[in-house]
Design a protein that fits this description.
The chain is α/β, with parallel strands linked by helices and 368 residues long. The protein is built from 14 helices and eleven strands. It is 51% helix and 14% strand.
């Protein structure tokens, strides 16, 4: 049984056409059910795809004369949505010509185009950028928001938690994902008012949803494997993710330098090579590539601009899984179970019922 077609922005990313086409070919090798709509400069796309006969047989090409550049402002990109490969890939989802879109292009432009074209689900104020992050546990965790919204209120955070839990149930096969809010401490009095309000509300509604709210988590505990979904605003999430990516590169570069420092070290590398290869594969961003814009009326996945063909294939494989498991419908059902009005009323109730001394104590401890 074939899955809905996946629209590929063939021209986006640092390497562009060659990597996107090669990644699609790899994904097709792994899952023969896939079909594609390759969007880009038609003559160039056809020439590149000719190297992959199996891909040609499962792909239609849609011509796009323009490309969104990496430094283009979202407002500028929006004005050219009808002529760019990114804009036409998203429009294919809106028109029903594809079930999902994948792009390695400009993140801000992709977010703006997707939100304007597809709109958000009922009950969702803002879409969020979610990705899978490696852990010491049995599976990756879902983390959101990673940069789509620099500021968020309690209602946004609760919506992110609901969407992240739905994503985790699909990506990791979890019945009731453990959800935590990123904070500067695990105590209930820590953090901003919005964080504390969101925590109070999630405690109240988690029984109605397929998730377990476990309170707050600090950044140094994210990858230990004790949580399945980490929720935060886009500003903090983006900083935390890039710090983790930088730490991973630091470890791998340090190991490489250490193993090449002397003849004895090189001999030690040969002995420990299986372990170091396991570490390298676990930390390789290509094995975790593919961030999802959750909360839209459609599936849009962002591949890293510098991803290899294997990384692009991983992003496409995630996209296919989300389509087969009906992520959008699951999120809509969860939101209906809670209700947007209940979320708003609970936030107001939490704020009006909080004693003044508790607020003063929380503010003092937050600043400590």
């Amino acid at each position: 049984m074939s899955l809905p077609r996946i629209a590929i922005d063939a021209m986006g990313g640092d390497e562009g056409l060659s990597v996107m086409v090669a990644g699609a070919a790899l994904a097709l090798d792994a899952d023969p059910r896939l079909t594609f709509l390759m969007v880009g400069d038609e003559p160039r796309v056809a020439e590149t795809m000719a190297r992959y006969p199996a891909l040609v047989a499962r792909t239609q090409i849609r011509h796009a004369p323009d490309v969104v550049t990496g430094d283009e402002k979202p407002t500028q990109a929006l004005r050219r949505a009808r002529t760019t490969s990114m804009g036409l890939a998203i429009d294919a989802v809106k028109q029903g010509d594809a079930g999902a879109a994948v792009s390695a292009g400009n993140t801000g432009a992709l977010m703006a185009m997707a939100k304007v074209s597809l709109r958000t689900l009922p009950g969702i104020d803002r879409p969020a950028l979610a990705a899978l992050v490696p852990t010491l546990g049995d599976h990756d965790l879902v983390m959101l928001d990673l940069g789509a919204n620099t500021t968020c209120d309690a209602r946004n955070l609760v919506q992110f938690a609901i969407m992240g839990a739905a994503y985790a149930r699909i990506a990791n096969g979890l019945a009731s994902p453990r959800v935590r809010l990123l904070n500067i401490g695990s105590e209930e009095t820590k953090g901003t008012e919005d964080l504390r309000d969101a925590a109070a509300l999630l405690k109240d509604v988690d029984a109605a949803l397929a998730l377990t709210f476990d309170g707050f988590i600090e950044a140094d505990k994210i990858s230990r494997g004790d949580v399945d979904v980490v929720v935060t605003d886009g500003f903090s999430g983006n900083i935390a993710l890039k710090a983790m990516e930088g730490a991973a590169r630091f470890v791998t570069d340090l190991l490489r330098r250490s193993f090449s420092s002397s003849l004895r070290s090189k001999f030690g590398f040969l002995i420990s090579r299986p372990a170091t290869e396991l570490l390298r594969n676990r930390l390789d961003p290509n094995n975790h590539n593919g961030a999802l814009f959750v909360g839209l009326n459609g599936v849009v996945v962002k591949s890293h601009g510098s991803a290899s063909p294997r990384g692009v294939a991983h992003a496409i494989e995630i996209t296919a899984r989300l389509l087969s498991e009906n992520l959008t419908e699951r999120i809509a059902a969860d939101l209906a179970d809670v209700g947007a009005e209940k979320i708003q009323m609970a936030v107001r109730s939490a704020r009006t019922s909080q004693p003044a001394e508790a607020t003063d104590l929380a503010n003092s401890e937050r600043d400590a």
